[in-house]
Amino acid sequence: MRPLVRTAALSGYVELCRSLGVDPQALMKRVGLDTAALAVQDRWISGAAAVQVLELSAAASGHEDFGVLMAEFRRFSNLGPVSLVVREEPDVRNALGLLIRHQHMYNEVLHTRLSEGDGLATLKVDLRLGEAMEARQATELAVAAYHRILRGFLHTRWQPLSVWFRHSAPADAASHRRVFGPIVEFGREFDGIVFYADDLDAPNAMADPLLREYARQYFETIAVPKDTTVADRVRELIEALLPSGRCSVEQVARSLGVDRRTVHRHLASSGETFSSLLNTTRMHLAEQFVANPRRSLTEISDLLGFSSLSAFSRWFREQFGCSPRAWRSDRSRQQLPAQD
C-alpha cells in the first residue's frame, strides 16, 4: 500500500496559491485531489499526489520557494491529536522524540531521525514515497515545518547551526535565507537541520506541567502503534554501524538483543537477507556521499565501512557500472545549467 498523508499536510495550500495568482482547484484536479477535501484536516490522501501537486504549483506560480512559503502557513495544531501531548512535554528532547516516534499518525511519507554526536544534534528528514519522483517542494516544506516547530519549543529567535538540502540552490534563495537565516546550504548529503545538542535539554517553552498528565492519558486512548519490522530496525542499525567498521550481523543481533539466527529468520520471512540490506543501504548512502564534492573518496570509503579505498572502488564499479570518480564527474555535468 502506498503511503498516505493527512490533508493537514496541505494546510495553507489554497491561500498560498491564490496569493500567487494560480488556481489551486485546477492543479489539485490534475493529481486526483479536490480542494474541498482540505476543509477536514484529518482525512487521508495519497502522499504521492500531495508531493506532485506541490511540484506542479511551484512550476505554475514560478516560485521555486513554494514549499518554504507554504510552511509559513503552518500551525502546531496541523499535526493533529499528537500535538496536544507533544506541546506539554517538559523539554525539547522529549517533545521532539515523541513527535518523531508518532509521525506515522500524521504523515506516512515522512521518516525523520534524530541523532547526537560531538555535541551536535542532527535532524534528518527523508520522504519515502514508494516510487521515484521529484520532491523538492515537499522536502523543503517538511524541513521548514520542523524549523518552525523547534522555534516553538525554544524561542522565536532561535537559529540552528545549519540547514541542509541535497538538491541544488534555487535561482533566488531570498525566501530561504529569510526563513532559515544565512546558514542554509544546498548540494549537501542529506536534508535536515543541525543544532547544538544542548538545545534538546532546554525546557519546552510551550509546556504547562499541570496539563501533561491529562494530555498523556488522552493520547494513550488514541495513539496508533507503528508496525516497525525487523528489517526496518536492521536497516537503521546498519546505517548507524557502518562508519564504525563494526557492521556485522553479529553486532546487529547484539544491538537487538537476539542471536544471529533469529535475525536471519526474521529477515528471510520478509524476503530479505542481511547482505541484501547491507548492500542496498550502502548504495543509498553512496549516492548521497559521492554526489557531494566536499567528501573525499577515502572519507566515503570509511563512512561506508570498507577496509580500503580500493575495496570501495571495486564495489562501487560493480553496483553502478563505473568508478566513483567518473560517477561524480558525470553527476556534476548533469547539474550544470544549460547554455543558450
TrEMBL record:
Keywords: DNA-binding, Transcription, Transcription regulation. The keyword Electron transport does not apply. InterPro entries: AraC-type_N, Homeodomain-like_sf, HTH_AraC, HTH_AraC-typ_CS, Tscrpt_reg_AraC-type_HTH. It comes from the Bacteria. Residues 232-330 form the HTH araC/xylS-type domain. The keyword DNA-binding applies. Pfam families: Arabinose_bd, HTH_18. This is AraC family transcriptional regulator ligand-binding domain-containing protein. It comes from Streptomyces viridiviolaceus.
